[in-house]
Specification:
This protein has 334 residues and is α/β, with parallel strands linked by helices. The chain contains ten helices and nine strands. It has two domains: 227 residues, Spore Coat Polysaccharide Biosynthesis Protein SpsA, Chain A (Alpha-Beta Complex); 83 residues.
Length: 334
Amino acid sequence: MTSLDLSVVIPVFEEEESLQELSEWISRVMQTHGFSYEVILIDDGSNDNSWNKIVEISEANPHFKGLRFNRNYGKSAALQTGFRAAQGEVVITLDADLQDSPDEIPELYRMITNEGYQLVSGWKRKRNDPISKTIPSRFFNYVTRKISGIDIHDFNCGLKAYHRTVVKNISVYGEMHRYIPVIAKWAGFRKIGEKIVTHQERKFGRSKYGFERFARGFLDLLTITFVGRFSMRPMHFFGTLGILSFLIGFTFTVKIFWDKIDSIYISQIPLKRDIAEQPIFYLALVAVIIGVQLFVTGFLAELITRQSLSKKDYLVIETAGLEEIPQAVKIKVV
């Protein structure tokens, strides 16, 4: 069991001007509230003097630690690396640009430890950003809220708090940092809360994100939704689409042959075009073939999934009446 109350994980990308003030601010908050803590600064391949500043801060204060990437991998990679290195019982993430206030840390910590939340996301209800960012962000959060079923207002807020069990059992990759609450929910962590936080005006530098992040964000949302819902039961997705496509093709086929039978034996009115000359014939043929292919894809995916599940460890967070876990049971206690 870790002896630290808090780990603060901070991705850094070209924020050399703000690091000194941020480190002093965090230190004041921690000393005021008597936390045992560590601060992990991850330099995500900065081209400025950020790393030298991190080294300087860590030498002056042993609570501060630094990790440096050889190039820019993105915020998700920085967070994932910080999560793996964190030793605190509660893990706090915030951005390095001074727009997230460290004064929020004690209350976020209390919500995790006293109120039983597994994840608490900050909500920048009043944002100090231009309208070109706030309007798309509200729409993005609305769609994410509806698709994920998680009732929080600001999925992309960098200021979040996690119980240690959460960060040690989720994987953040690509640009999935926007959807950590969704990833946590699909991993079984459903005690997700929200706290209104202060959004500071940017003091140094400029935003590192452009409008293209929203397009990538929606693609990532579709990916994580699919993986979360169907990764353990792919046949439910591919099989359903396959059966639907096959039934459409089969229905068209029946209609074509019924029309042929009707023209010969019932109405005796010759068809204007032969079966093979009708566009609907090829549509029916394609639909049947696609249906079969989707069904086979689902079947193969199901076989692969079941093979991987045979090697999977299932997360057990508490036990009762057991002194040790039976070796034959593939579970792990965190």
